[in-house]
Design a protein that fits this description.
single chain, 24% strand, mainly beta, Lyase, Ornithine Decarboxylase, Chain A, domain 1
Length: 137
């Protein structure tokens, strides 16, 4: 992620859909509609960064979108991981929240993520089929 301080009056993204009204820090997330990020989340959803929920602003571009970090970039720095959707108990938005933002549901959000993005799955109950587990009858 890239972090940039911008002055009041700065246009954000295509057609300057959002304009800053005061000095702000913006975060650039290197994902866009080519990665399956819905264009409709512009101004309607949040991302978790540095333990904070920050709003998506401006239009989602092909390979990037912006978030408003506020007048201070407290706790957020270049290279931080952005959680787009995940476990709401950790402060992240859920896929259902993203789905609601575009008038849909979480299944659509999850299934539209492009194949060019790497996947990582966490499942504490998963048993590797290559590992022999004794069967008790």
């Amino acid at each position: 992620m890239l972090v940039k301080k911008v002055p009041a009056g700065t246009g954000v993204s295509y057609e300057h859909q959002a304009i800053t009204h005061e000095t702000r820090y913006l975060g650039l997330i290197p994902l866009g509609y080519a990665d399956g990020i819905p264009k409709g989340i512009s101004g309607r959803s949040i991302v978790q960064l540095g333990g904070r929920r920050v709003p998506v602003i401006g239009k989602v571009c092909m390979d990037q979108f912006m978030v408003d970090l506020g007048p201070e970039a407290c706790g957020v720095s270049v290279g931080d991981t952005a959680v787009l959707f995940g476990d709401p108990d950790t402060g992240a938005a859920s896929a259902d929240e993203w789905g609601s933002a575009i008038g849909s549901h979480g299944d659509e959000i999850i299934n539209r993520i492009a194949p060019r993005l790497p996947r990582a799955y966490e499942c504490p109950d998963y048993q590797d089929p290559e590992v022999s587990v004794p069967h008790v009858a």
